[in-house]
Specification:
This protein is mostly helical and 377 residues long. It has 14 helices and no strands.
């Protein structure tokens, strides 16, 4: 009896079964893009933050500072017509609710809309819409061979237009930003992502909270908002390189006011998205969970296959091995040097021999754990 009194919650506290879990901020886990933003922190912003203030901030996300929407680039209000929205694969459309007819303001976008942020340029770089369309196709299938084919087509198109964008595309496709030892962490939580969405779309946290209850995914919430908006000034197309470099810059933001600067950078990316798929996967990338079910090994193998086929079409060396053999060698090289850039770029320039030479054991570069090659005994 004495034990049960000590274990009982204080008077007025909710039962343990409904008590929200404690959210603790963790440092980068060494996985390249940092931690996956827990869905409960997003739910805390969209649910508990749907008050009369419209800012929708909560204190549950210990990793985010308190900022105002004025610091996160407020947008201009207006009106727009309603439009439907399709969701791919694991993002199937939900039945229409009363909140689906809510009006969201029209966004004005000009060259000076995002102060301090470099404007994306589509010249000489692959549009991000190409990558987001591939992500939507990946979500629409569960077949592994079909996923391999989708990634292969996407990387072949990137190699034909801008080979320099291949490595950023591989990292973005695998929820990573760099090698594991660099410990790149975006350092954003649910409330920071929610504030960026509010600042970029003009929708209040109450409206976003209603959409969250209908969809349950921050990317789908952003896509639903964009599907009902019409831009007065069409923004310049986002590029793969611009998205990747912006994410890297977010990782390096430190010091006083870094939270507001991170929210501003995220809002700039979200505001520049031109279609719902771009919005959906941008927000999921910020949450480090794009939900395509494509691992780094799958993405890397597809990139290697695209390089081999390109070299064969460009009359590569007569003794170049077939695709499967090159993929096996690339896995061995990646085990000795787990850096996508040091594996793919030499392979593209000089073939297998150059890749082997670039991926030799290097002091200061950690190997992957266990064996460099799987053995049976």
């Amino acid at each position: 009896r004495r034990w049960s009194r000590a274990a009982s919650p204080p008077r007025g506290a909710p039962p343990a079964s409904v008590r929200p879990p404690e959210v603790k901020r963790r440092r980068g886990s060494g996985q390249g893009a940092g931690r996956v933003v827990p869905s409960r922190t997003l739910a805390a912003f969209f649910g508990q933050g749907a008050g009369a203030s419209g800012g929708g901030r909560t204190g549950d996300d210990a990793g985010d500072g308190q900022i105002s929407l004025d610091e996160a680039m407020p947008s201009v209000s207006g009106a727009h017509p309603q439009r439907g929205e399709d969701r791919a694969g694991g993002c199937r459309s939900e039945p229409s609710t009363a909140t689906d007819g809510a009006d969201f303001p029209v966004q004005r976008r000009g060259p000076a809309a995002d102060e301090g942020a470099a404007a994306p340029s589509s010249r000489g770089s692959m549009p991000y819409s190409h990558l987001s369309a591939a992500f939507a196709r990946l979500c629409a299938t569960t077949k592994r061979k079909e996923k391999d084919s989708i990634l292969l087509e996407a990387f072949e198109a990137i190699l034909s237009r801008c080979p320099e964008d291949l490595v950023p595309a591989v990292y973005l496709s695998s929820n990573k930003l760099g090698p594991p030892w660099e410990d790149l962490d975006l350092g954003v939580g649910g409330s920071a992502i929610g504030s960026a969405m509010t600042a970029a779309t003009g929708a209040s946290s109450r409206e976003l909270g209603a959409l969250w209850k209908a969809h349950g995914d921050a990317g789908d919430v952003a896509a639903a908002v964009r599907a009902r908006q019409r831009l007065l000034v069409k923004p310049e197309a986002l590029t793969v390189r611009h998205v990747y470099e912006t994410l890297l810059s977010i990782c390096t933001m430190t010091g006083e006011g870094c939270t507001s600067r991170r929210v501003g950078a995220m809002a700039g990316l979200i505001r520049a998205a031109q279609d719902p798929d771009e919005m959906r996967f941008l927000v999921r990338t910020l949450a480090c969970h794009i939900r395509t079910q494509a691992t780094l090994t799958t993405v890397k193998d597809a990139a290697v296959a695209a390089i081999v086929r390109r070299r064969a079409g460009a009359r590569g060396a007569p003794g170049d091995p077939p695709v499967r053999e090159v993929q096996r060698i690339a896995r061995e090289c990646f085990a000795a040097c787990p850096d996508v850039r040091r594996v793919l770029e030499p392979l593209l320039r000089g073939g297998v021999a150059a890749m082997r030479e670039a991926c030799a054991f290097t002091v200061g570069t950690p190997m992957r754990p266990m064996l460099a090659r799987a053995e049976t005994s």
